[in-house]
Each structure stands twice: as structure tokens, then as C-alpha cells.
Amino acid sequence: MNKWTRDQMAVRVAKDIPDGAVVNLGIGLPTMVANHLPRDREVILHSENGVIGMGPAPAKGEEDYDLINAGKQPVTLLPGGCYFHHADSFAMMRGGHLDVCVLGAFQVSAGGDLANWHTGAPDAIPAVGGAMDLAIGAKKTYVMMEHLTKSGESKLVQACTYPLTGIGCVSRIYTDLAVIDLDPAGAKVIEIVEGLTFNELQKLTAVTLINAC
Q1: For all residues of the chain together, what is the average pLDDT?
Q2: Helices and strands in the chain: count of H runs, count of E runs
Q3: What dihedral do alpha carbons 45, 48, 52, 56 form, nearest 10°?
Q4: What is the set of active-site residues?
Q5: pLDDT exceeding 90 applies to what percent of the chain?
Q6: For residue 23, which of 34, 39, 12 has the smallest C-alpha distance?
Q7: DSSP string of 79-112, one letter each residue
Q8: Assuming Cys at both sites, which of 5, 28, 192, 209 could form a disulfide with 104, CB separation 3.0 to 4.6 Å?
């Protein structure tokens, strides 16, 4: 089965981020988007640990571990960028000052509910961080995730079974198989990886899809 690579997924997300947007890229897959933003657009990247104006990842050997994102990865700072107290950073998040946040997920429901901080397993380590503030505070919340779990179950579900991060907050999902919009009309597939049919995608997905390609 054809799948988009993680870099291809990041390219696809970056394509949809508008010029002038203030964007938070969550820990994990979403951080890769920073390396693929179109050069003809000004996108202002924010990290909840108190950084704004980040650039792409530094070249190997040029890392500065005093300048990191929320995932403790070294980052670069573009001209005009700065860092500040994380309380101010959370005020930005909660105050609705972010245009877009891109988060990873364990599950997303058909209604846009997000579960991305805990699987509920007894030995799992809860790691909510700023995800709740981002998911609800940003004007748009996108999710970037693999379509299936390691055991082959759909991560897009009718109702989340894991503890929720936010309710009705996700508007678009980018997976390694498709791009899907979530709105009151349902889960609309707007793009599918080449070589996969809509019917094949539907068989892999736990909710009824609408073909809007």
C-alpha cells in the first residue's frame, strides 16, 4: 500500500499554512513542518516554552542547546525572533493569538475531538504539556498523524476511547494516506495518496467518509 513519507506529510501541511500566520508546531511529527515552509511566505513559528520566530532545524554541528523548542530539539531563530517567559507564551496560546497549531494524535473523532496526551494504559506516562491550551486556543487546529495504529486500527474514530485533550477542536487531519476535513457535514476526504482508492481508504477508516476529492 502506498503511503506518504513523514517528509511528504510535512510538505503537505506546510502547503496549507498561509502567509503571515502565527503557528505552533507540536512535539513529534509536526516539528518537521518547519523544514518545508515555502520560502515566499512569512510564517511566524511559536513554541510554548517561550520562543517565537523560529526557523528550520540547525545544520549538524551548529546546534545550540540553549535554544530549543518544547520537544527539547535545537532550533534556529530568524531575524526578529525572540524568547521569553513561558507564562507569556501560554497567555498568547490561551488568548487566541495563534492562527494555527499542528498537533500529533493518538485518536481523533469524527466530531473533531482530540486525544493526544495519554492512552490510558497503566504503564503509560501522561504528557499533556501545552496541548490542551493549544488545541482550544488556536484559531485552527490541524492534526498530523499516521492513519493506522501499529496494530492496524484506525486513528480516526467515531468516538475517542482515550482521555480527551479537546472537544470539537480539530478541523483538518493529515495522515500518511489522506487529507481529511472535519466539519458538521462529516469527514470529507480532500486528497488521497496516489495508488489508493477511496473505497480502500474507507475500509481502513472507522468512520463514514465523504469523497470530496
Answers
A1: 94
A2: 4, 13
A3: -50
A4: 48
A5: 87
A6: 34
A7: EEEEE--HHHHHHHHHTT--SEEEE--SEEETT-
A8: 28
Distance CA 169, CA 19 (A): 22
User: Angle at Cα 11 formed by Cα 9 and Cα 15, nearest 5°?
Assistant: 120
Amino acid in position 207: V
For residue 171, give the DSSP letter: E
Q: pLDDT (tens digit, 9 = 90+) per residue, 4-36?
A: 999 999 999 999 999 999 999 998 899 999 999
Sheet hosting strand 178-183, strand order edge to edge:
77-83, 51-54, 44-47, 22-25, 100-103, 140-144, 170-174, 178-183, 186-192, 209-211
- Asked if residues 11 and 36 have their Cβ atoms less than 8 Å apart, the reply is yes
| Helix boundaries (H) for the chain | 6-15, 86-94, 131-137, 198-203
CA diameter of the chain: 49
Residue 95 has pLDDT above 90, yes or no: yes
- Asked if residue 138 lies in contact with residue 179, where contact means CB atoms within 8 angstroms, the answer is no
pTM of the model: 0.93
For residues 121 and 128, the answer to whether their CB atoms sit within 8 Å is no
Q: Which of 100, 124, 128, 125 is nearest to 116 (CA)?
A: 128
CB 177 within 8 A of CB 196: yes
* b/e code 176-202 from CB counts within 10 Å (16+ = b): bbbbbbbeeeebbbeebbeebeeeebe
pLDDT at 127: 73
